[in-house]
Design the sequence.
DNA sequence: CCCATAGTTGAACGGTTGTTCAACTATAGT
DNA sequence: ACTATAGTTGAACAACCGTTCAACTATGGG
């Protein structure tokens, strides 16, 4: 029952720094938006969605154009666009039957550029 | 068989801008590191790993301390640390039986701060 | 030498997630 | 009004991912 004190599951008193732990525990808890943060990263964690964003960086595009660029079905693209829409990473604009998508702000591109830079020198 | 030209799967000529598409297609292909980029984002897309990084931002910690902070088993933490290690997001240092982890560079923290800022005003 | 403990690892299980398929909405042209 | 097409949506299936469990390595103390 007291799994908190079960050895091999959680380590014994010897190693852990109680003061440090409780301090950090509090700080982490303060950032309760951990899930919100992770959600943003998750939206960018899929190759398809990453390609969509890299495409939209170049130009505003209709769903059909995106599906052509990626070589994927309209449906698949539409599903992924929804994810990006829900997180307000992209915005859209109707024009007749077509829907044009574009990046919601340049913030995301900066993020991606930072990651590219990171993956370069590592 | 020619699913590329199958209506309802990929849109017809009317809507798509061939020049634009092929230009972007080439650009996207140039960035063939799409998977590498997505992998970095994926490492940060999990709440557990995000908490680990936020913890390590505060201080170097042994695995046991991290498991205390998160209230998770040593095994679960160790598995996630491996993901972060493989992507060189964290580094480690042995000291007797214990292993101390720390952030590999401040790059990651900047990324997270950017995302926090983004999720604030949106 | 032996035991306890910090940490790692592989297999397995359950939940999540991406794509496909089919059905649907809506707009444009005739 | 009818047909064709751009796009969305829900269900279903497969692949992926995080946690648990058990077995393992390795270090330190008696």
Sequence:
């Amino acid at each position: 029952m007291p799994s908190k004190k079960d050895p091999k599951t959680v380590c014994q008193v010897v190693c852990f720094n109680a003061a440090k732990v409780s301090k950090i525990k509090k700080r982490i808890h303060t950032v309760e938006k951990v899930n919100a943060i992770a959600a943003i990263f998750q939206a960018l964690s899929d190759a398809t969605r990453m390609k969509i964003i890299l495409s939209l960086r170049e130009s505003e595009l209709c769903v059909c154009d995106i599906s052509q660029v990626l070589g994927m079905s309209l449906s698949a693209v539409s599903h992924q666009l929804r994810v990006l829409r829900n997180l307000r990473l992209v915005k859209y604009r109707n024009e007749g039957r077509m829907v044009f998508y574009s990046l919601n702000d340049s913030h995301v591109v900066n993020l991606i550029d930072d990651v590219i830079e990171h993956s370069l020198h590592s």
In short: The longest strand of chain B covers residues 90-95.
